[in-house]
Amino acid sequence: MAREMEQLKKAPVPSYYIDYHVDDIQFANLTASFGSIIEQNQDRSRILSLRVKVGDYAFDDSHPVAQRSMGYRGGGAGQAILPVDNDATAIAFQIWKTAENKYEDALERYKAVKNISERESKPAVAVNDFSTEPVETYIEPPLKNLQEDFDTAVWKKKVKKYSAIFLRDKNIMQGIVNIRATYERKYFISSEGTVIVQNVPAIYMSVNGSIRADDGDIIPLSKSYYATRPQDLPGDDVVVADVAKLVDRLGKLRTAPLAEPYSGPAILMAETSGVFFHEIFGHRIEGHRLKNEYDGQTFKSRINQTVLPKTLNVIFDPTLSTYKNFRLNGRYAYDDEGVKARRVAIVEKGVLKTFLMSRSPLENISNSNGHGRASVGAEPVSRQSNLIVETSKPVKFQDLRKQLIKECQKQGKEYGYLFKEVVGGFTTTDRYNPNAFNIFPTEVYRVYVNGKPDELVRGVDLIGTPLAMFAEITAAGDDAGVFIGFCGAESGNVPVSAVAPSLFVRRIETQKKPKQHEEATLLSRPAPTEQ
Amino acid sequence: MKKIIAIVISTLLLPAIVSAQDDNVILRAMKDELVRSTNELKYENHDKPFYISYTIDDASIFSVYSSLGGLFGSRDLKTRDKNVRILVGDYEFNDESLDNNTFSDPSALDIEMPLEDDYYGIRRALWTSTDNVYKGAAQKFKKHQATLKEKNKPLAELPHRTFAKIPPHQTHLPIPQYNIDRKKWEDYCKELSSYFKEIEALEASSVFVTFTRTVRYFVNTEGTTAIIPETLAAFHCNAQVKGSDGSAINAQATRYARTLDELPSFPELQKEVRDIVNKLKNSTQTKPLEDEYTGPVLFIGEPVVNVFASTVFSLNASNALQGQDSYSSEGGLGAENKVGKSYVDASITVKATPGLKTFQGKPVIGNIVMDAEGVKPPEEVILIEKGILKTLMNDRSLLKGDQVANGFNDGPGVVQIGIDNGIPVAELKEKLIATAKAEGLDYALIVRGKASPMGQTEIYKVDVATGNEEQLSPARLKQIQPKDLRRLTATATQALQYLPLSRNNIVSAIVPEAVLIEEAEVAPFKNSFQKDDIEYVTSPLKGSSK
Fold first, then answer.
1. Owning domain of residue A197
2. Chain B residue closest to A203 (CA)?
3. B524 strand-pairing partners
4. How many A/B residue pairs have CB atoms within 8 Å?
């Protein structure tokens, strides 16, 4: 880096900042289907991603301009594979080629944005393109060899055993269990002098089943587990019971009625409300997006204004690895720009306080708060970490149900909805499409006002527009649930958690899920019983 | 769009375990599911299948990748792929008769083939594919029946594909086991790739070794069962430097063998890589071909195989129905109408000899015991005799009455190209110069050495006045067409070369050592991605040259 920086400073348009990011990844992956191993990988790789910035902190190649007529055909060029052994020449050569390409890319973009910005009207408040941050040094001890912790033979037996439980129901079409273990050591250095070496061990196990309903629709259900070491995943007794429950629920869903579109009261149980907040709120307080004139910028001018019920606090805290006994996967010591992770209170008593910030400043926020994140090989932007929603006025779950029923009666509804589990969702934040969200529930019940037992239904997606939805949040439970997942956006897939209480919402909307028309198989599945 | 999902399953990296196989389990599972499918498949209001075949390709792919002395990858990937083919109707008229698209749409309910010898797992994987493929075939056959009715013509008057009847066979070959010394190959690749550190103008380089062990299991309702092991080892070396004019100059070497032990010895590989290093060091000062060239070109050594690559190696019958989209090559389509006619120079005879195992005492790879449709090819098929196209390579789908399924679904395997009245290389060079002079050219071109990626070719300029040769920067040779082979002279002596059709499908080509094409086109190589020739930071290899 010293050599690159020294020579690039002498270039006609010098570089003022370089960073290198290397992900050294040990990886193991096992997948079993109905008791048979169908995928087995184990490997190690090192991936370099780097940034070379041209200009200065005030105005550089990342300066936001309208994309039209930039006359710039750039993109990418900042990634390379590095050798898995420590051959200095091979590593230096890869870095040199990648940095050279990246500098040329940054130079082209810098010339383009410089040209455009001279034609565009100047903003009322000048905002730097890149923040200045403290120089940090942080080095964690070396990570263990994954093979020391991950016994392939043991886990093969386990995933085979777990997935074989799906054989219990002849109507189940897919019964897959996957375990993916990554021990990742992340290296970051910058020309400012920051040196960060941190470990990110992560074990994810997922259980995915699907069943065919008599009308040909395919109904999926899933369950996932997260730990930082294989031995910390739940034991056989827990997983076997969970898969058995999932099989049982699939059987019930097969004959469950299809739901019609609905507008009315609902309870989002804790795990679902975490995803709900991630989609409708979290993506709208990611700072870099508020500089983009194509974005809807829902909250850009709402700092110190009430945006949520006064009983709610919203925090993003990447320093936590657990919360109320839940393991959180959005934890890191330093973000992907070498900025120290910190707790950020985004909403206090319903009032918006700040945004999630990377090193791309906004008008009133000139520094990062440790949320510049990226997946392997991507450039960091501001992203969510561990989302925590807290309420100052918790309500017992039974009281939430009472409120639901009361509100249904008030609105003249025969039933309200209870969203118990969810597999994910998405939202659009740009201003050229409806600012909407869509959440994919997997376990949904109708709660009848006349005391009839809750009825499991299928084929429901939870939809809506964010601002309207915020106003409908009426009460929050005294419980908490966690959703562990990966969030996909501009800088790739990053691990995120969402912890929230159950919510009672006065009015939600649902729409029908896309339906499949799969014919029944002509012959029965071989191996009719659990092996 | 931003989204959150529970768990993203990645297939980013590759595995490394080969388990001991009990072959009988795979074959037994295939046979048992075949019997069940044959006896029990019933799809309301649709015909039953008349033909079912199951193929399982059990493959292990060892690969090592190194660059500049660093190890970038070393793995042994195990895969098992299945192929299910089901025909509804009969051999004369079936679901594939009137449609060029014979592939089934994938099913969301597919179950992947287990990596282990898991009897029920294998049957489940075949079961889901059978269900999907059969339903598609049965529906398509019903549609074809309606089309036939609508045309209101006898079937004989309607262009259609038939399915060839093939006698069943049982071919069960022993499955060899291989012990791979991974460390040895890692060390070899690292050392060989480290030689490129000497090239200051280096832009990229890599050394790969791969060893693919495949066992194909095949059963069909005609009674054929087969277990066919195949192996292919390969050594690849690629490098690129920046020429004096800023253009990219590539060089490569590839060696194939049946096993890792049969690859050239380490000293031979060292010499091969050293030669490339030296060649690239010198090539940075070579001049480019100034203008596009049309005239005589002499091919010597490895590049000879490329003369025939797009012509006589791809004499496959496409059997595509006209008026529908076809994925077949132009060569194949064009050749179908030229059977019995003059196709190339009358001195050329081309034979497919898929069973040939050795040539001049050296092992020949690419032999075919059985093609993907279970057909055993004959020992020898004459494709071109004294310039006349005699027949084409066929699979089991036939469009014309005089065609036969000759077992070439996977290509020719081994091809021999013989030339009448061959002359030595020295005389070919004299003829090259004489031809160029007669055409009023100042120079002629020789292509020798190794073919490079991106269509680049090692070119030598021959002064017609002095006969002196000068190496030029790599240039691009326009693809040779059958018409270009109508004026050709070659050596009588032959050499064994290899032509990769796909990653694991290699044609062994026994071709003349040198070939003179009287009219070929060569153009300067233009790299459309070439950037301004500015080096902002010096290469870390600068100053490392010995």
1. 1-255
2. B7
3. B475
4. 229
User: What is the rounded distance in angstroms from the CA atom of residue B181 to the CA atom of residue A144?
Assistant: 26
B37 touches chain A (CB under 8 A): yes
Tokens of A151: 């016994």
User: Which residue out of A3, A15, A31, A40 would a mutagenesis test of the B interface target, given it has the greatest number of B Cβ atoms within 10 Å?
Assistant: A40
Residue carrying structure tokens 């028309």: A517
Q: What are the tokens at A9?
A: 């400073």
Question: Does B8 contact A486 at a Cβ distance shorter than 8 Å?
Answer: yes
Residues A377, A495, single domain; the answer is: yes
Last residue of a domain, one of A255, A290, A311: A255
Q: Does B118 touch chain A (CB under 8 A)?
A: yes
Contact B426/A at CB under 8 A: no
Q: Which domain holds residue B131?
A: 23-64+75-182+212-231
Contact across the interface for A37 and B204, Cβ inside 8 Å: no
**Residues of A (38-57) whose Cβ lies below 8 Å from B:** 38-45
Query: CA B381 to CA B351: how far, in whole Å?
Result: 6
User: Do A389 and A483 fall into the same domain?
Assistant: yes
The verdict on A195 and A272 lying in the same domain is no
CATH of the domain at A35: 3.30.2290.10
Is position B546 within any domain?
Answer: no
Residues 16-35 of A with CB under 8 A from B: 25, 27, 29, 31, 33-35
Helices B266-283 and B182-194 pack at an angle, to 10 degrees, of 20
What pairing do the DSSP bridges indicate for beta strands A172-190 and A137-139?
unpaired
- B220 and B91 housed in the same domain: yes
Same domain, A335 and A220: no
**Structural domain includes residue A48:** yes
Total structural domains within chain B: 2
Give CA–CA dist A437/A464, Å, rounded: 6
In a domain, B356, yes or no: yes
Examine the domain organization and report whether B433 and B345 are in the same domain: yes
Tokens representing B128?
């889901």
Tell whether A519 is covered by a domain: no
Give me the interface pTM, i.e. the ipTM.
0.89
* Contact: B108, A518; criterion CB under 8 Å: yes
Q: Which of A7, A18, A22, A41 to mutate to test the interface with B (most CBs of B within 10 A)?
A: A41
B539 to A96: CB separation less than 8 angstroms, yes or no: yes
pLDDT, tens digit only, all 531 positions of chain A: 999 999 998 888 999 999 999 999 999 999 999 999 999 999 999 999 999 999 999 999 999 876 544 444 445 568 899 999 999 999 999 999 999 999 999 999 999 998 888 877 777 778 999 999 999 999 999 999 999 999 999 999 999 999 999 999 999 999 999 999 999 999 999 999 999 999 999 999 999 999 999 999 999 999 999 999 999 999 999 999 999 999 999 999 999 999 999 999 999 999 899 988 998 899 999 998 888 777 778 888 899 999 999 999 999 999 999 999 899 999 999 999 999 999 999 999 999 999 999 999 998 899 999 999 999 888 899 999 999 999 999 999 999 999 999 999 999 999 999 999 888 778 888 878 877 888 889 999 999 999 999 999 999 999 888 878 888 999 999 999 999 999 988 899 999 999 999 999 999 999 988 888 889 999 999 975 444
Any domain includes A522: no
Closest residue in B to A6 (Cα) is B537
Give A237-297 as a 3 state SS string: HHHHHHHHHHHHHHHHHHCCCECCCEEEEEEECHHHHHHHHHHHCHHHCEHHHHHCCCECC
Are A436 and A456 contained in the same domain?
A: yes
DSSP string covering B122-165, please? HHHHHHHHHHHHHHHHHHHHHHHHHHHHHHTS-GGGS---EE--
B 203-242 → A contacts, CB under 8 A: 203-204
- Asked if residue B318 and residue B176 are part of one domain, the reply reads no
Q: CB count, 10 Å around CB of B30?
A: 23
Q: Do A233 and A378 reside in the same domain of the chain?
A: no
Shared domain for A343 and A238, answered yes or no, is no
Number of structural domains (chain A) is: 2
Of B14, B72, B203, the CB nearest to A41: B14
- The answer on B303 and B220 residing in a single domain is no
The minimum CA-CA distance between A511 and chain B, rounded to whole Å, is: 18
B4, B10, B16: residue with CB nearest A496:
B4
Residues B116, A489: C-beta atoms closer than 8 Å: no
Say how many Å lie between the first and final Cα of chain A, rounded.
57
